[in-house]
User: What shape does this take?
Amino acid sequence: MTIGIIGSGAIGSAFARALAKAGIEAAIANSRGPESLKDLVDELGGSIKAGTVLEAASADIVLVAVNWTKLPQALADLPDWRGRIVVDANNPIEAPHFKPVDLGNRTSSEVFAEMVPGARVVKAFNHLQAHLLSSDPAAEGGRRVLFYSGDDAAAKAEVGALMERLGFFGLDLGSLATGARLVQFPGGPLPVHNLVKFT
Assistant: This one.
């Protein structure tokens, strides 16, 4: 199972750090090219490599974390996703002022899914602040909770298994329309809540 990351901002880098701590290989890419990621991959060690957006997009699981207005450009001209898993870790806000984007009554994941035709979209890794995503998932004697949702049961199972490998407790919120609305920032009730599952 190969992993790609499109976007090297706060969430993309935090996800890469979490993978690196677990010794999981991945390719990370941004719009500026692999050379711009040299310091980051040097910091993270051998399991994370810099690549092109096309290389990252060719993985079995691809996490996308890009500023909302830059998403169409970031995902333009990529081949058909052919049923691969694309993790939507985006929030519909305009950086750096965190101005909400008007999506009508749709969730950001429903809009995002149209940008990745042929993909099995799972909403995940977007509700926690970046420093919590990259920190030790063992918290307060339990495991930090990460939410995920989607319409494909097998794709959700793969993402849930990855969360487990990283040491988190994955919690399935159901369909993309339902779960994405719960974790969407702004508007959803679950973003930034640092919840812990005790055994």
In short: The CA atoms of residues 30 and 187 lie 28 Å apart. The two ends are 29 Å apart (CA to CA).
